[in-house]
Every structure is written in structure tokens, then in C-alpha cells.
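Input record (Table S2, row 123):
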Amino acid sequence: MRYLNLRSLGYVFLLSFVVLSFSFTANAEEEVHEDDIIVGNVICLLPNVADGTVKPVIASGPCNGHGEHAHVVLDTRTKEGSVYAVTGSPEAIERLEKTPARKNVEVKGKIGGNQDAWILSVD
Ligand SMILES: [Zn+2]
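Output record (zinc ion complex):
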């Protein structure tokens, strides 16, 4: 009888351990997906109204003096070179524009969209 009780107690401990370690794993995965990091080039798309086009430029310093323009990030880690359209709050975009380094830099944010149209929401 005593032996049986000890054995079932052991099962309870084992079960709690399995449940606990599973929930820790689940939490760790959530954290990874909360903020994605892309390593790539931040590219300014400077509008050329006369041509009706945009000129892609890798700035050599802060670009907030170039007027209103959009940005994309080219992921340089992948062979396909996925391009992410950059979105975010005005403050987040301002922080990005004031960042001097643009080549092979880490850009943190949330990835959305799909393989035909990736979006990176910076924060
Ligand atoms: Zn720019």
C-alpha cells in the first residue's frame, strides 16, 4: 500500500514536470515571434515626380532631411532576398530615418503579409 502511494506520487511529480516544461517551451516560442529581426539593407525610395518613379538609395547617414519618402528592407541573409515594405508609427519611422547605418543592419519589428508582399512593422 505504502509502495503504491509513493509510486502514484512519483507520477504526479513527473506529470507536473512535463506540463511545466511544456508551458515554458510555449512561452519561449511566443517571445521569439513577438519581435522578429531582419538583417539587411534599409533602402530609401526617393520619389522622382518628373519621371513618375522612385529612386532606391542606400543612405550613408540619417535620411530625415530628404523629405517624405518610403522605405523597404532587403533581407540579405536569404538567397531569395525578400523585400519588406516598412511601416510603423511616425515615431518609429523617425527613429529608423535617424539611424546612420543602413547596410546589413538588424531591423526589429513584426513581420506580416505573405511571400508576395512582406510587411515589416517597426517599433
Ligand atoms: Zn530614408
